């Protein structure tokens, strides 16, 4: 993302002009834009014109519109962001108050105006515009008959392909069927890798599985690559890395990212960091339950006592429709920071973020043990 | 006879061209094979034969032939099968005919068709010879051959052929199928005639049969059937012990054993030669570890045992769970070698986890084989030390002390497997039962036959022809050929085309059986591993959310709300999330200690809500014990076992 212009007044009101450059920037934009904001961007609109004789013709015009956002849609697979809202600036083609859906496009600037820019949003812009590009990682999590091909970017984990094939088990005299099924499965996975992984961008491809599936697959892939003279694979052989995972399900990615050899290679990706923090939280819960809290009420109580050392919070909470609720969360984050605590904002598109989201979305590791708040329990859980 | 035919649907031209009454039998109330379809049916049988032929071991007669003769023989047999396509003549007889007629197909065919009586006498002659060579083929029962032989004759004497008691056939086929030397093709063929007989059984089904009675009738005279899973830490010698046991029992013939010995030596893994009996894939043999469940059948004095050889490596525990889920009893193998037992037991080895798993899967009878005692020179102290350690642990896990037996043995040297030990070191202090006797002493559980039918699919594979087969354990109830079943959770109907147990066609299968079911009327893609086949009248429940009472094992990370887990339910493996912690219970009394706990630490008991990503078929534990159990695992470790208490849709 490129920051083109930033104008904020003392109250925090103002506008910022940004140019998204990568699909991931759309995700950042999705997290920045909330309902009620106004967005100005160039777009294509079908305009109907009526001539003096009464015949009407319609043609598509590229024009710049400013809308007040009412609805936000994000497609994680295509990384498309759609903003629906009313036009708030009269234009030669579009009347005031007419509905329009803006499709944010890559490499086209848009300007975002907010009533109030809070620290979370500003921080998001800083991270999004950070020029030190961090390695993209592709990972294949597999077990016999099941594989997930995913791309891990700093703030997103995208499942690009899921291969689910039933492989006949070995049985007396029917070993061929088992082996044939396996070969077919490996072939599918290999095709998925070739289709979805861009070897120019990806710095490292992790192949993770329980048992020997990864070794067998790796062997199969390169044998086939040699046979078919697949240059792309052969040239990038060094980028492949074999790691252990306990199953082929998506959440095993957590184990993969915790693997020390992977950590060393991709240590600066957000995904790995998040996994580590969440793990710390869980181990704290095991060893010293009075120092690990989760749930909004508990965490707020802990914050009042200035006890929070690390706050784990899902970015999903900042996307909520309710402005006041968002404000509460922003306040929580700010006050933790004021008290010298550390705040980790988890991306809800990562595996660890998904887990945190299930765990009410907010958790905290405390500096000192606090009595458990038994009474609140009942009302807390819905 | 003709009253069973569906006259309206009859194809008269077929009728006059020797339309057998056998086909008339296959017309059934809710499912029938129309005469125009029958070609298809029989082609399937034929192709079974040809595909089997490729794999089968040669029998004695064939072994004496030269290569060219074998080829000739093969082509003659194919030719005869083509001509007499609808007949199911055991291969062994075909070979005889071909050989006596010097590879002349015409003559052989006419000889087969000519004189059933001649065949009958010939058969009984061979029967007399049989006991001399126990590992080779036991000849087909004369009566069953009569069935076969009389089929080509006109419809008049067919009835006579089919009157023979069903049990005889069953009994005959079982021992034969056990002898690997007999070749797998033979039992399949001879019992294919048994399959043709199915509609007769179908008839009782219509008359509201009592499953218990049917069970008695079908299985009353057979040995009790028992499924035994062999578990233990990786490299404890499970496969080797079982391979050796099978060899000692004469289940594996010398020639194959010799082959394994040669080949394993070539790989420099001679000590794995016995394990190769059960580890069949190249991958398993090269690496020297079992990866998927291996199966084998053998018989003891009073029981017929199906052996499930589970992998010990921790990455293959999902496979082990699906195997243990099918078992009635468990045999745990532990390595007595110094240091090895300790790694398997104390330091995060699989000995503990496996014991916990089989117990949580409902196995109550348990035996421990203390293997490799030869490495500690048959020391009694070592044996006692291990027994004491295991005893206290197993008691803690929940096995009754009376249900657990300990046997010292050695798989590689074959001591104390099928007979009393000969080694002085062992026989001086041990005079208990040998391993085979221990297995024989297991009691077979009561099978829930009268409950509605449920079968959990644990394998799907292409059958011969266009059909496909699923195999799995019949959890409850009975299933007969021609039945309609509902495949849950997709709720698709399918029709049972044929049934078999260990390659032997059956007409009815009962709870506890490990059956292979050929389905029709459903696409292969619509059936997945872990699906449940059930009775359409009494379908199994389908849900994505349910409440379970769980016991949390020794976990490093506490379980919280939103905890992702891998759910194992029968052979199903699904990602799931613990969506809610309802209450924490007192482990012994089951009283609610705390509502909505924040987390569940180690060794706690609780009621939780579990959410699965897509609908699964399940049952309340109170309705069906088999389908009411779940296992939760994460990161390669079993963290909890649970019983389904409430289904929330």
TrEMBL record, chain A:
UniProt subcellular location: Cytoplasm
GO biological process: nonfunctional rRNA decay; nuclear-transcribed mRNA catabolic process, no-go decay; nuclear-transcribed mRNA catabolic process, non-stop decay; ribosome disassembly; RNA surveillance
Record domain eRF1/Pelota-like N-terminal: where: 1-130
SUPFAM superfamilies in the cross-refs: Dom34/Pelota N-terminal domain-like, L30e-like, Translational machinery components
Keywords: Cytoplasm, Metal-binding
GO-annotated cellular components: cytoplasm
InterPro entries given in the database record: eFR1_2_sf, eRF1_2, eRF1_3, eRF1_Pelota-like_N, Pelota/DOM34_N, Pelota_N, Ribosomal_eL30-like_sf, TF_pelota
Main location: cytoplasm
GO MF term set: metal ion binding
Cofactors required: a divalent metal cation
Stored Gene3D superfamilies: 3.30.1330.30, eRF1 domain 2 (3.30.420.60), Pelota, domain A (2.30.30.870)
NCBIfam families: pelota
Similarity-based family: Belongs to the eukaryotic release factor 1 family. Pelota subfamily.
Function description: Component of the Pelota-HBS1L complex, a complex that recognizes stalled ribosomes and triggers the No-Go Decay (NGD) pathway. In the Pelota-HBS1L complex, pelo recognizes ribosomes stalled at the 3' end of an mRNA and engages stalled ribosomes by destabilizing mRNA in the mRNA channel.
Full protein name: Protein pelota homolog
From TrEMBL, chain B:
Predominant subcellular localization, coarse grouping: cytoplasm
Matches recorded under Pfam families: GTP-eEF1A_C, GTP_EFTU, GTP_EFTU_D2, HBS1_N
Record-level GO BP terms: regulation of translation; translation
Polar residues bias (residue ranges): 171-181
UniProt-listed PROSITE patterns: G_TR_2 (PS51722)
Keyword Cytoplasm assigned: yes
InterPro entries, A to Z: EFTu-like_2 (IPR004161), GTP-eEF1A_C (IPR054696), HBS1-like_N (IPR015033), HBS1-like_N_sf (IPR037189), P-loop_NTPase (IPR027417), T_Tr_GTP-bd_dom (IPR000795), TRAFAC_GTPase_members (IPR050100), Transl_B-barrel_sf (IPR009000)
GO cellular component, one term: cytoplasm
Biased composition (Basic and acidic residues): 119-130
Domain Tr-type G per the UniProt entry, residue ranges: 223-449
Annotated region described as Disordered, given as residue ranges: 119-147, 164-204
GO molecular function per UniProt: GTP binding; GTPase activity
Catalytic activity entry: GTP + H2O = GDP + phosphate + H(+)
Keywords noted in UniProt: Cytoplasm, GTP-binding, Hydrolase, Nucleotide-binding, Phosphoprotein, Protein biosynthesis, Translation regulation
UniProt keyword annotation of Protein biosynthesis present: yes
Subcellular location: Cytoplasm
Homology family: Belongs to the TRAFAC class translation factor GTPase superfamily. Classic translation factor GTPase family. EF-Tu/EF-1A subfamily.
PANTHER family per record: TRANSLATION FACTOR
UniProt-recorded name of the protein: Tr-type G domain-containing protein
Provenance organism: Exocentrus adspersus
